[in-house]
Specification:
The chain is built from six helices and no strands. By secondary structure, it is an all-alpha fold. The two termini are 14 Å apart.
């Protein structure tokens, strides 16, 4: 979550670097990130986070991103999940992930 809202792209690149080797890990990370962003959106709109494993990270995202940005991240995650299902080249996927998520948060 911290890498998602970091000022530069290097943190997100470092965090996502290992995903190109393990398809199952990438799928799990995207699923977990989806739950985290969902919780952040719920918190941002006044609800209680209960779907993700990291309530504090969800609350931090809720403070950092507007509801529109959180929805953009959810849509980016859906595009990334589709790319994984279509067996996108693993090296390209890592770069695509960073580009999609950075664009979604407005950076």
């Amino acid at each position: 979550a911290k890498a998602l809202v970091a000022p530069g792209s290097s943190e997100l690149l470092l965090v996502s670097a290992g995903l190109e080797k393990e398809k199952e890990v990438a799928d799990g990370v995207l699923a977990s990130l989806s739950l985290l962003v969902r919780d952040a959106l719920v918190v941002r709109l006044g609800g209680v986070a209960d779907a993700s494993a990291d309530r504090q990270a969800a609350e931090a995202l809720a403070r950092s991103l507007s509801p529109a940005r959180l929805m953009a991240v959810m849509q980016a995650i859906e595009r990334l999940q589709t790319a994984r299902r279509r067996n996108m080249n693993p090296s390209l996927f890592s770069v695509y992930l960073c580009a999609q998520l950075r664009a979604a948060v407005g950076k």
